[in-house]
Amino acid sequence: MDGNRKKPANRSLSKKKDQNRRGRFDAEKTRQKKSPFSPEKSRHSGQGADHTRAVRNIASSSLHPTRKKVDAETLQYFEEINSLLGTGTQVEDTEERMVLIENALEETHGKECELACEKSCSRVLEMLVLSSDSTQVASFLHRLSPSFLLVSTDAAGSHVAEALLKSASVILHEHDTEAAWFKTFDQAFTIICQVLGENIEEVICNCYGSHVVRSLLSVLSGVTLELSHKGSRGGGLSSRLSLSENPAASIKQGDMIFPHLLQLFSRRILGAAKERTIQLCMDPFASPVLQALLRVLAGERALVREALYILLGSDKEGANEEGKSSNQNLRQLMFDNYGSHLVEVMLEVASDHTYQEMFQQILTPHLLEYAVHPSANFVVQALIISMRSHNQVASLLSVLKPNFWTLIRGKRAGIITSLLKVCKKYQSSEQEVCSSLAKALNLDAASSSCLVLRLLFLEGYASSNGSKDWKPLLKERMSVLGCAMLQLIFTFPTECNQLFWLSWLNMEPAEILATIKDPGGCRVVESFLSSEIPSKHKNRLIAKLKGHFAELASQMLSAFTVEKCFRAGTIDLKEAIVSELVAIQSDLAKSKHGPHYIKRFDIIGDARYTNVISDVSKQGSEVK
User: Fold this and answer.
1) Distance between terminal CA atoms of the chain?
2) Helical H segments across 297-412, by residue range
3) pLDDT at 622
4) SS3 track for 432-478
5) Is 3 left (phi over 0), alpha (psi -120 to 50) or beta?
6) What is the mean pLDDT of the chain?
7) How far apart are CA 600 and CA 590, in angstroms?
8) Is 606 left (phi over 0), alpha (psi -120 to 50) or beta?
9) Do residues 152 and 198 touch, judged by C-beta distance below 8 A?
10) CB within 8 A of 118, min separation 6: which ones?
11) Sign of the torsion angle spanned by Cα atoms 67, 73, 78, 83
């Protein structure tokens, strides 16, 4: 992805974090009875967002009653259970395991909360919950539900809560509404939604509670969510190259497991967001919850529209109580690291009408400013990927195409990649986007033969400020985005991408060889060989690789490209490829990919190609 975006750190039960968490609770005992957290104080405080978040986390602990400590006998009992059922010391007999699990869960009666929040016991409970049957999970969750607020916001307890929700999600997908355990789950989740809903702002702003609430939304809706957000933006590069529809498909009412609870719980979250819109939207832990909420509500058009108005800080007339327009609120979110993530999801789930409003009234007037911003540029990419018509593509391209070089030099080439994708999707403006990109890469008015090399080493060329004396270092790794753009370009009609494939054919054999050996470059070659470009031009490229097929076939990364060359080549080129491979067939057979690779050659093409392979192999044996 373009730029470095800070992500909320994943939770762990490391010793350092546990010491910090214990210190926080110890400090809480000596503070004043009145909570220092209040909406008014946080909103107007001049101590900064970090202070506000710290105060909010302390406020969360004020809701917790003093926990009882787990007695030594119970601790020892759970250590023994862990030694019997834990990793590496598992009891093999299934029936015996189930008896041990049942006995251990029975031991938790009356002290579920204390055990869940005790570090060593919580690990054992996680293991037990993930191995329990439907009735046992439902029963334990029901007993723990009144204490779910404390458990969800505890360093150890939150892991138990998530393990319970994970197990419940798997069980509930059976949709056996007549089973006794289903009714138990219904009662448990009703209590959980009430308990968390009463303190929803404190929970979603808590570093542990945020994860639990997202898991809860996933269970209630029946939608699987990526809860960790491991630095990716909707699938990253793979989603940019995919031409499939937006993954945020509508959720049918029948697919939801607890639609009534999802509606009620969602309104609790939106109620908190309405009071403190900007603060929650830009909070590192509350923002991912709001993103998850929008995704699970993607099929509820009325509720999604209401949620978008609330999160943009506007009513249906477009102004909030403070007199700020939704445009100003959105601008503030787009310039924030966490808020921009939320705006991306807004664009993803918005109806066509709402998207058009955001497109025309809010984003396009300041498009270039957003495109070069470290955070807002990701929103521009989401805006492009979420486009609903070819008219929108043409409108946005007209604004951005004069600034392609500015985007490349500012390390915002991901926006151009997104444009190429939607042009392909709608089969619109393909010639225009290709010619604009070629012009941006050919500032020195040099021969177009340099176009492909400049894309393959895009960052290096951009760092030279487009110098005409720039030469690529073939040993360096090629640009991920540059390779992605070329892959997309070679899927366009030949009359649109002619400048690029002609440039490709003018490359030297050493440059083509280096491209095939690169993880991204080899996919560009495969895209070229799979394109609609006339076969005679593909054969020109393949011919430049003569004498190197054995070298390429011996490496797993480039072996598949050799197969592509064989598929696309003429009979003479096929003979040349096989003759080189015969010389290394014994070594090739010993490699991990070799046997499969040789087999693929045996079945490729029709009978005449099989005869060619056989004849050449025989000739190779006679030479030996």
Assistant:
1) 52
2) 301-311, 326-334, 337-349, 352-357, 367-371, 376-385, 390-400, 404-409
3) 52
4) HHHHHHHHHHCCCCCCHHHHHHHHHCHHHHHHCCCCCCCCCCCCCCC
5) left
6) 81
7) 16
8) beta
9) no
10) 69, 70, 75, 156
11) positive
Burial of 420-452, coded b for 16+ CB within 10 Å and e otherwise, reads bbbbbbbebbbebbbebbbebbbeeeeeeebbb
Structural contact between residues 561 and 552, judged by C-beta atoms closer than 8 angstroms: yes
- Model confidence at 256, pLDDT cuts 50, 70, 90, reads confident
- What region, left, alpha or beta, does residue 249 occupy, with left being phi > 0 and alpha being psi -120 to 50 degrees? beta
Long-range pairs for 104-108: beta carbons < 8 A, 24 or more residues apart: 104/77, 104/78, 104/128, 105/132, 105/136, 105/139, 105/140, 107/74, 107/77, 107/78, 108/140, 108/143
Is the whole model's pTM more than 0.70, yes or no? yes
Asked whether 378 and 233 are in contact (CB, 8 A), the reply is yes
Q: Which of 577, 574, 492 is nearest to 533 (CA)?
A: 492
Sign of CA dihedral 264, 265, 271, 273: negative
Helix or strand (DSSP H, E) at 168? helix 157-172
For residue 337, is pLDDT > 70? yes
- Say whether pLDDT at 4 is over 80: no
pLDDT at 185 over 90: yes
Distance CA 532, CA 493 (A): 7
90, 96, 101, 107 alpha-carbon torsion, rounded to 10°: -120
Q: Is 157 helix (H, G, I), strand (E, B) or coil?
A: helix
Residue in this structure with the two tokens 């204490």, named with its chain if needed: 147
Extract the tokens encoding 594: 């070799």
Residues 499-528 pLDDT 10s: 999 999 999 999 999 999 999 999 999 999
Q: Are 283 and 205 in contact (CB under 8 A)?
A: yes
Residues 274-321: tens digit of each pLDDT: 989 999 999 999 999 999 999 999 888 889 999 998 998 775 544 444
Of 209, 296, 232, 227, residue with least CA distance to 259:
296
Give per-residue pLDDT as tens, 553-604: 888 889 889 989 998 999 999 889 888 888 888 888 888 877 776 776 653 4
The 3-class SS string of 356-367 reads: HHHHHHHHHHHH
How many Å is the Cα radius of gyration of the chain?
30
pLDDT at 36 over 80: no
